[in-house]
Design a protein that fits this description.
Elements lengths: L12 H20 L3 E2 L5 E3 H7 L5 H6 L2 E2 L4 E3 L4 H10 L9 E10 L11 E10 L4 H17 L6 E6 L3 H16 L7 H9 L10 H7 L11 H16 L4 E3 L11 E8 L8 E7 L3 H4 L7 E7 H10 L12 E5 L5 H13 L4 E3 L6 H10 L4 E5 L1 H6 L1 E6 L5 E5 L7
Parallel strand pairs: 1-5, 7-8, 12-13, 12-14
Antiparallel strand pairs: 2-4, 3-4, 5-6, 6-11, 7-9, 9-10, 10-11, 14-15, 15-16
């Protein structure tokens, strides 16, 4: 027996119905904020992610699915592809800032665990063209709006500012000097990061390293007045909006393109990997990828992680649509007439089905009941000759005679 690859999932019809319900609501909310959907290829040039995300990030160094002699890579995230499309298609010539959203599959070769898969779906947004702190707040409020739409109120936002690359230079030198005294206690990954990008160590999930970082220098202390003032402005507006948040000066996110505001929305129901979504500013990425210096901010949310939280909260998904009418075929000679009627009713907008395996009338009615069909119509020789049939409501057994040549009103 051939089984699905590790780290992937089958979504059965009931799963797909729930996922489509969620993404449908997500699309509605993005629309309220005037975000428009964008779609990009499943794979991109590998260089896009190396240059955009950063060579030393876990995603680029360990987790990408690359092929054709490393020329192409299945996309592990969407911000770099969206920005590539923004530049390539000259979206900067359109009026206003560009507010884009996506719902797309991603691919990362990482260890499968709860809420993390090698093929997964993310939805997210990118607002390109403004450095106003109101856009930072809008992005946070948008992400919270989506989660609260599904009744997730037991969540809070972790927020930080990591300033500009220039502001980080002095800090990184001091952080490196501090961590050099603990080299023997660092993991092999962190020792590599210490030499190439010490900021990434702040993203560690290792308990021993987190303890070491308790007394490490804090980046906020190295920022200039303008960066601090912007961050304080964001916090002030979040307070006015009654957003539940916590300032976390260690929050740096996992990609190198982030600048200034970074944030995560936390759900304690996800265990140690408790971030349900995250995002931040990336004001230098467009220039890094060949465009003009343009400020931008975005966020991304894993659909699978959101579904996990919804299941744990016993979210009340609406029932899947059931057949309005099930047509019972009484005998072989009635099949074609019943099939024509089936198609006619479908054209009237009714969900209809029948049995195609020659079961008895009794078995077909049982099947209709198991499908939770609303009504059944038995079609046999008498019904064909008279042009009339009995419409039976399965929930209470009530019956009405109908004219098969007329539209059926349930």
């Amino acid at each position: 027996m051939i089984k699905k690859p590790a780290g992937t999932q089958d979504f059965l019809p009931s799963d797909v119905y729930k996922r489509n319900f969620v993404t449908g609501k997500v699309r509605e909310i993005f629309g309220l904020y005037n975000y428009r959907e964008i779609q990009t290829p499943t794979f991109e040039k590998t260089e896009l992610f190396r240059r955009g995300i950063g060579e030393e990030t876990d995603v680029v160094s360990k987790e990408m699915y690359s092929f054709n002699k490393d020329e192409f890579t299945l996309k592990p995230e969407m911000t770099a592809p969206v920005i590539r499309s923004y530049i390539e298609n000259s979206l900067f010539n359109l009026p206003g800032i560009q507010k884009l959203f996506y719902i797309s599959n991603m691919y990362r070769h990482e260890r499968p665990q709860a809420g993390r898969f090698r093929e997964f779906t993310q939805f997210g947004a990118e607002a390109i063209g403004s450095d106003d702190i109101l856009i930072d707040v809008e992005m946070i409020l948008l992400s919270l709006h989506i989660l609260e739409e599904f009744g997730l109120n037991n969540i809070y936002t972790k927020i930080n500012t990591i300033g500009t690359p220039e502001e980080r230079k002095n800090y990184l030198e001091n952080l490196k000097n501090y961590l050099n005294d603990f080299t023997d206690s660092l993991s092999e990954t962190s020792r590599i990061r210490l030499q190439k990008n010490p900021l990434r160590i702040l993203d560690t999930k290792d308990a021993k390293e987190i303890s070491i970082l308790d007394n490490a220098p804090i980046l906020f202390d190295y920022l200039n007045d303008d960066s601090r003032k912007k961050f304080e402005g964001v916090i002030k507006i979040l307070d006015k909006a009654h957003v539940r948040y916590k300032v976390d000066y260690r929050l740096v996110r996992g990609f190198d393109y982030y600048t200034s505001t970074t944030f995560e929305v936390i759900s304690d129901e996800l265990g140690s990997q408790n971030a349900i979504l995250g995002g931040g500013r990336y004001d230098n990425l467009i220039q890094q990828l060949g465009g003009k210096q343009t400020p931008a901010i975005g966020f991304a949310c894993g659909l699978e992680r959101l579904m996990m939280v919804l299941e744990k909260n016993n979210f009340g998904f609406p029932d899947e649509p059931k057949p309005d009418i099930y047509i019972v075929i009484a005998d072989e000679s009635s099949k074609e007439f019943a099939f024509d009627l089936l198609e006619k009713l479908r054209r009237q907008g009714l969900i209809c089905d029948t049995n195609f395996t020659g079961k008895s009338v009794k078995s077909q009615i049982k099947e209709a009941d198991k499908m939770k069909a609303g009504y059944v119509i038995v079609i046999g020789e008498n019904e064909i000759k008279s042009g009339k049939a009995v419409l039976k409501k399965l929930s209470d057994g009530s019956e009405n005679e109908i004219d098969l040549s007329e539209k059926i009103n349930l």
